[in-house]
Amino acid sequence: MTEDPRISLRLHFESGLTFGRGKADLLQAIDDEGSISAAGRRMGMSYRRAWSLVEEMNAHFAAPLVDSSRGGAHGGGAQLTARGRQVLADYRALEALLRDQGAGALGRLRAGQRSAPA
Fold first, then answer.
1. Which CATH entry fits the domain spanning 11-68+75-97: 2.40.50.140, 2.20.25.90, 1.10.10.10, 3.40.640.10?
2. Does pLDDT of 91 surpass 60?
């Protein structure tokens, strides 16, 4: 059972990019799997959707977050660039800060809630 409410972080950039847990998790999956396709499968999304999200992220940063090579006889692959690793680390640090520093306020909000109807 998850606690209600939960804190989630979503960043809205002036460039139009929205970056939240899903995109951060996709970057982590690409880093773990070495493949956009495998990362998409792990997250339950199509390759096309995963590729589209990678293209969107790459287009909105000064340097790409993911470097990929085409498939073929030896298969392709993907890896996070230095910028991609930094973006992921910074996002995770902000998540941890929000979770740790917001725990007291979240507890007070939770305590003030009515019980859910039966």
1. 1.10.10.10
2. yes
